Amino acid sequence: MAAMTQEAERKDWDTYFMDIAYMVSTRSRCPRRHVGAVLVQGKKLLGTAYNGAPMGVPDCSEEGCMIAEQLEIEVVDGVEKAVKKQRCIRTIHAEQNLLLFTDRIDREGSTVYVTDQPCWTCSNMLANSGIQEIVYHRAYPKDSEKVEKLMKAKGIQFRPLHGYEPPAQAGIQVLSE
């Protein structure tokens, strides 16, 4: 009877790997957003990464965010509008760190689980990395449409993990941008 109970509580693979991505995100010291990513080949975990300043360089919690302002054109109801966006440029994104610290041979045909939908820059990098699938939890609406088109053009499976709840230990606290 105990074996049946244990089996019933066992997490599916998507939940298991996304839980790991969220736990990895707890290493981030970014006050704006904690992002974690994991590289998986089959059922084997090959690498983890989170967003943060380059190694040996003070991070945002030590020296504050390094904010850059950019103007972006958004089309709303057929009308172009310039919108000022602020981005912290001190940190390397989790997906970028994952690509920096894993081997191409390991990425061929693999899956990346990431807490947040990749931005345009990370998506471009992932598209050339050899991966075959990206699974994410939190949406990033700003780049969503063009990222989805890119992934479709590259033949990379790109899917949100619906109904997922991060582990309580991840202590999710995200400031809106």
From TrEMBL:
<dbReference type="InterPro" id="IPR016192">
    <property type="entry name" value="APOBEC/CMP_deaminase_Zn-bd"/>
</dbReference>
<keyword id="KW-0862">Zinc</keyword>
<dbReference type="InterPro" id="IPR002125">
    <property type="entry name" value="CMP_dCMP_dom"/>
</dbReference>
<dbReference type="InterPro" id="IPR015517">
    <property type="entry name" value="dCMP_deaminase-rel"/>
</dbReference>
<comment type="similarity">
    <text>Belongs to the cytidine and deoxycytidylate deaminase family.</text>
</comment>
<dbReference type="InterPro" id="IPR016193">
    <property type="entry name" value="Cytidine_deaminase-like"/>
</dbReference>
<dbReference type="InterPro" id="IPR035105">
    <property type="entry name" value="Deoxycytidylate_deaminase_dom"/>
</dbReference>
<dbReference type="InterPro" id="IPR016473">
    <property type="entry name" value="dCMP_deaminase"/>
</dbReference>
<protein>
    <submittedName>
        <fullName>Deoxycytidylate deaminase</fullName>
    </submittedName>
</protein>
<dbReference type="Pfam" id="PF00383">
    <property type="entry name" value="dCMP_cyt_deam_1"/>
</dbReference>
<keyword id="KW-0479">Metal-binding</keyword>
<feature type="domain" description="CMP/dCMP-type deaminase">
    <location>
        <begin position="12"/>
        <end position="158"/>
    </location>
</feature>
<keyword id="KW-0378">Hydrolase</keyword>
